[in-house]
Structures are given as structure tokens and as C-alpha cells.
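Dear colleague,

Following up on yesterday's call, I've attached the two folding results inline so they're easy to grep. Please treat them as preliminary; we haven't cross-checked anything against experimental data yet. The first protein's sequence and C-alpha cells come first.
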Amino acid sequence: MIFDKFTNGYIFSLGAELEIRILNKNDLSCANEYDYFKENISENFKNNITSEFLQCMIEINTPIFNKLSDLMTYFKEIIAELNSLAQKKDLILQSSGSSALKQEHLELSSNKRYQELSQEHQILLDDFSICGLHVHVGFKNFDKALKAYNFSLVYMPLFVALSASSVYSNGIDTGIHSYRTKIFDRLPKASIPEYFESYEQMKSVYNILYDSEVIQSEKDVWWDVRIQPTFKTIEFRVCDAIHDFDRLEVMIGLFRGICKLSQKKDISYEPMQVLKQNMWKASRYSMNANFIYKKHKKNIREVLNELIEELYSKQIINDEFMDKAKKIVSQNSIAQDMIEAYENTNDLKEVEKIGVIK
């Protein structure tokens, strides 16, 4: 039995997963050094890093926090230790949606699950040197989580735009600010999901996939947003990985903000074509995207600022967070900074350096 209906969850708790890339300091090539970090990290953090698809990647899994500030402190502390380990081997840590440089000698993780995924998806995973950010928000019970899940679908392109950091991938200028999003869209169990009216309706989909051996567990469904009954959370999976702690804090805070807002407002059910079009515009143009909002075309910055002001008016966020969020919204996306760096230098190494975590 999978996908059980849950109760007694943590109300609006926070947790996050950030995927980072291990690079050789001298030439920024990927370094297959995950085992080194796993073996040498302190016991305080050993259970909070895990392998990812490639041996040159690390996934950080945070504990559960109630305060956003505590979550950010944890991120800074574990990354500081990982950076210290990296320096001992002339390595650096980098976090962006894709590797700008053409990478060779990549080694697949020894994890059996990833070996099976590679075998199943073949060429679709050949350029899967991509990193993402996943954010978990806790809910008291499944019904409240389901309302937030449906409510949040329309907002997902906003987070694609805010996190976009994969315009250059494997030595190619893709022209798509969040190319990682498009790589994931190729996979059959990924991309933006449909609306669900009830637990029974959602569970029936999982049952079909499980009974037909398409999935082995809930974690084999990779929608941009999914409910995680095991953790009693909604998991937002739509973002490119980012290196910027202020941007990271704002995005996590906004994810929790829309979850709280969902319990106060009705759901706006948008046609799937509108959801898909908005996702495309956000992935293509990031912060310069135009967005279909309430049946009209609007710049994505306007929509984000309206969301921030609504969260503030309902006392979901405070003055300090609102100011920080508006500052991030007013800036370039990371992808736009990458484009400017390449136009100024014609050097993809300078693009790759933007995502180095300091």
C-alpha cells in the first residue's frame, strides 16, 4: 500500500533539498568526489547529505524547521563545512540548474535506483548534469495539503523565473533561461501535474502506476509539485538550484506563503494550456516573461509583487521579508546575469563561476 492519507502533520513546517555540483578548482570540470564528502563530513551532518544521479553531485537534505531563519542558518553551516572539505582537495562547490561547461568523464551514481533510471530512460538522461531545489511545507492533514497543492499550481512559473540558472548547458547556449526545466519535461512522470478533486482521485493514479509496476514508491513520481504522505508535506520541485542565500530564503518563504494563503482563499482552476504556457514563458525568459494572469497578459514581476503585497496585507510575511523579496524581484534572474557575463567575456568559465557557493 502506498500513498496513505495522513493526519497529525506539522503545520507549515519547512525542509529543503538542495543539489550541488562538485568541480575541480583549476578548470571547473566535474569531479566525481561524492564519496570523499560522505566519508569525511562530520557526524552532525552525515545523515543530511546523500548521493544524486551523478558522482559529481551532492544532495543536502535539511532537518525539519519551524522558522525560516533556522533553516537558512542550517544551510549556511552545512555548506560552510562542505566548502572546508572541498578546499582540502582543490575542489569547489557550485549550484546552478545546469553545468555551463561541456563536461566529460561523468560517472553515474552507484545507487541502484539511479542505475535503473538510466537504463530505463536512455538518451533522455544523457545530459542530466542538472541540479534543483526542492522545498517541503508541512500540513496538518491531507485535505489541507490537497487544497494547497491545487492552489499552488498557478504560481509555479513564478518560482521557475526566480530560480532560473540554466541558460547554458553542456557548452551550449540553449536560449532557455531554465533549460533544466525542459530537460525534466522530457521524462514521462515529470512536469506540471493535473488538478485533483479528492484524495481518492489522486490515490487512484498512484495505484494504477504502482500496480502496473511503473513506480515502486511515491518518490518515483516527479511532478513539479507533489504531496508526500510519508513526510506529511507538499514538495515543490520546480526550481533550478541556486547559490544565492538571499534568493534561496525568499523563494522558500514564498513557497510557505502561498501555502498559508491557500487556506484563506479559493482555488483558481486554470486550463492546463494556460499553466503550460506560463511555465514555458517563465523557463524561456525568466524575469522578463509575460504571464497569463486572470485572463490578461502581465509581466511576471508585476504578478510577483502583487503576490508579495497580498501576503503582507494578510500578515503572512513581515516588513523585513517583504523588503527582501521585492529587492530580489527587482533584480536580474541568475540566468540573465549569466547571459550578461558571457556577452562581456565570451567565456563559459565566467558563467560557471557565477554559481559557485561561497
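Below is the second protein, in the same order (sequence, then structure):
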Amino acid sequence: MGRRARQGPRQARRTRAHRWLRRARPRPLHRRPRGRVPHPPKEVTVMQLGLIGLGKMGGNMRERIRRAGHTVVGYDRNPEVSDVSSLTELVSALEGPRVVWVMVPAGAATQSTIDQLGELLEPGDTVVDGGNSRWTDDEKHAEELAAKGIGFVDAGVSGGVWGLKNGYALMVGGDAENIAKVQPIFDALKPEGDAGFVHAGKVGAGHFSKMVHNGIEYAMMQAYAEGWELLEKVHSVTDVREVFRSWQEGTVIRSWLLDLAVNALDDDEHLEKLRGYADDSGEGRWTVEAAIDNAVPLPAITASLFARFASRQDDSPQMKMIAALRNQFGGHAVESAK
């Protein structure tokens, strides 16, 4: 009987996972260039990371982290993009203490994944929830994992489908000790420079900050959309797209969202291909609920949320711009005009 046949199922899984991990180890970060005196290499702590969820953001995050020299073992329900076939194999492929990043839809999917990790991981390991979970769920997850000696960090992540190139803005919550274990990964994901990362506070602070960020995003997009519809309505303005383009430099309302609006208008000058319907991811609602709980007036953000509700009743011109912007920065689905 050969060696492979004598192995039990669990040992065989670990052997396959470790064989994959050896193949996936990163190349050296610094190679001596020929004919030049090299600069001293920047010190980088190379890490292993388990990443669960390889969709639009998760897949790009895996690539950005690997480009920084770290090893990423990715798992997704889609076997075509996965590095391993199960959560068990993912955990087996990582050397302890492990860091596992969860990038799946908020709610039941996140809860199920964290429950499974609670059974697979060991004391000293750390779980990062990088999805758009509600901050109150973070407190629950942290408490459940802490009872097993497992750390927890919540990370609000912004950057959409552009994050691979530009980096991701990161707002994280949790104990400083747990965040320090993940810091090399945060450094790989964030944009270059000093901005783009913040330890916002204790558990839940990261997702709460991202929630407010998205509420502000709602209001900004609504303002651009309302202005665009008014310009389209009057007869005296004959080139609305170029008016938007003229705002990109030198004005107080220039922003990345404005740049994306111009991109959308370059693709479809009058947004005639889109239906005036825009969904909401839930964070706008949570922002308004938090404002009510804390007696903080948020008229602009609240109105922008209600405007999206109105889009589900009529084919709103403003919501064509909102839909176009959401598709530009996040790759969110749009509905074609009838």
C-alpha cells in the first residue's frame, strides 16, 4: 500500500493544501537590478491570508494583496475562482496564527461563515469581516469568537471595482492587538500615501464609519443627479455633458463621483439606455435609523434615500444618473430602458 493510500481523509486534504501553498508562495519582493546600485529594500512583513468571497471586490483584493508580496489562499462558492475547495482546506493551508478575511454579503451569509470559522480556527487566530455588515452584528460576532480565543476586526472597505488600481479606503474597528496582526494586509490594500486607513475605534466602529460614508455618498450622488436633470430640461443648455466636464477642474464641486458621471455620459450622453431605477444596499437606511436613534438631523441623506424609493414607482431621470454612477464605481447592476 502506497503512502498516499495510507493517509486518512483529513491528512490528505492537508497534504494537498500545503502542496498548493508551496506553489503559491510569493516571489522575492526585491531583486538586484543589473548594472545599477539598488536602493535599500523597504521592509515588508510577508503574511499569509485566507480570503473568503472572491466576487467583484474580493477577487481584486486578492490580486492587490498578492502584488504586495503576500500569500492569499482564496475560497469562493464558484470553484473556477477558488484556490481551495472548502473552508476546511483553506484553514488547513494557513500556518498559525491565522488571519482569515470574510468578504461575503452581509447578514445570513456572513453569520454562517463566521459560525463555521469559529469551529475551524484556533485560539490566537483572527477573523476580519470586510463586508458591509451592520455594526451591531460586529459586537455579536466579536463576543462569539472571543469566547473561543479568536480575535475579531470589522473593516469598512470603499473602492469598488477601481480598488485594484487605486487602492481601498479602510475604516477598521477592534482591539489594537488584533488590528496589528492584520496591518500588513491593510497596508497592501490602502492607497499609496498617508491617507486611506484609520483605526476608527472599538468593535463596530469600522462598519459604522463605512455606513456614514455611504450615507454621504447617497446625498452627493443625488445632488449631481438633480443638477444633471435640470440642465437636461432647459433649452438654453445644449451640451450638458461638456458642462459636467467643465466642472472637473477648478470648481468646488469637483470630485471622483463627478469624474465617474462624465465617464457615464461619455458612454451614453443622455443616459437613454438606462431605466431610472436605483437600488439601495441597506446602509443608507441604517444611517437614517442611527440618526433617529441619536437625534441627529440628516435631511439631505434622508431625502436621497427616499428619492431612491421613488425611483421604484416611476422612470426617474435623476435615477438614471444614480444608476449610472453606481455602475461606474461599484459595478452594480443597472436596468435597461424599455
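For the second protein, one point worth flagging: The two ends are 66 Å apart (CA to CA).

Best wishes,
A.L.
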